[in-house]
Design brief:
The chain is mostly helical and about 150 residues long. The protein has a single domain, classed as Lysozyme. The protein is about 45% helix and about 0% strand. It contains six helices and no strands. The termini are far apart.
Length: about 150
Amino acid sequence: MPAQTPTITTFQPPPSSTSCPEPSAKCLACMATTATDNIPAICRNRGRPEEPCGIYRISHVYWQDALQIIDPDDSLAQDYGRCVVDDQCAERIVRSYVQRYGGKDCSGDGRIECQDHVRLHMRGPGGCHRQEPLGSLAERRLEKCLKYSGIT
């Protein structure tokens, strides 16, 4: 009987129980509002990796990080240029990124809430850990959206 070649994959299915609360639909809306005011950023490639684009301003590196726990059979998610401009696919990427790096209190208030998810999304895990502030425009958008949505 011939020996079977092992299959190696980087796909890591999400754990069945996670300590990181998943962003709600309202929180995802605030992420898009904070990032782009819900106006899709146009994808441009000027001889370098794609600039952040779509309503969430997803960068190529962010997308690659999120792919670590995205189902490899999700063909749309595997295509950066098509996925980040498709709102539902981009949402799957954002949810996966938050799941991968979430569970962090980016604001230092002892709770993990929507604003922490937004800060993680905008600043990455390092910026979250350092509690880097958002720019003034993004901060105003976030505060207005959280207040309007009635979420924290």
